[in-house]
Amino acid sequence: MTITLTDMADGGRSGAHLVVAFWGQSGSGKTLSALKFTRGLAGPDGKIGFLDTDNGRGRFYAKEQEAKGALYFNMPASAQRPSDFIECLRAFEDANVDAVLIDSASAEWLAVVAMADAARTKSGRPLEGLAKWRAPKAEHARFVQFLLNTKMHVILCLKAKSEYEQRKDDKGNQVILDHGPRPVMDDGFVYDATICGEVFDKGFIRFDHRMFGKLTGIPESIFAGKKVSVETGAAVAEWLNSKPRDYALNALERAARDAADGGTTPLRAFWEARSGQERSDLGKPLLEELKTIAAKVDAELSAVAQVEADMASLADPFGTGEAA
Question: Long-range pairs for 107-110 at CB < 8 Å and ≥24 separation?
Answer without folding.
Answer: 107/53, 107/54, 107/75, 107/77, 107/80, 108/53, 108/80, 108/81, 108/82, 108/140, 108/143, 109/140, 109/184, 109/185, 109/186, 109/189, 110/80, 110/184
